[in-house]
Amino acid sequence: MEKNNLIKKEDVEYLANLARISLTEDEKEDLVKELGKIIEYVSQLSKVETKVTTGDISITNVFREDKVKNSTNTEEMISGAPDKEDNFFKVPRII
Fold first, then answer.
1. Is CATH 1.10.20 what the domain over 9-45 is classified as, yes or no?
2. What 3-state DSSP class applies to 73?
3. What pLDDT, on the 0 to 100 scale, is given for residue 55?
C-alpha cells in the first residue's frame, strides 16, 4: 500500500475529520502518498548545511531624525470627506 511509514491512512482520516472534509478511499490513498513525499522532501531540506551570514557591516544607522511639526487641523482634514459624523469619517459598515 504505502512505501513509507511517515504517514498512515489513519493520519489522513484524522486530518480530514479535523478539517471537516469527506474523502473517498482513493483520495485517502493519494493523500497518504502525497503527504509522505512532502514530509520526505522537508526532511531532506533539514539536512542542508546552512551558514549564518552577517551581511554588510559597513552600514551605519539609516534612521532619519524625528522632526516636530504641526499636525493638520481635524476640521480641515475631514472637510473633503463624502460622509462624516462629528469629527470622524463615516464609512459603510462591513460586518
1. yes
2. coil
3. 67
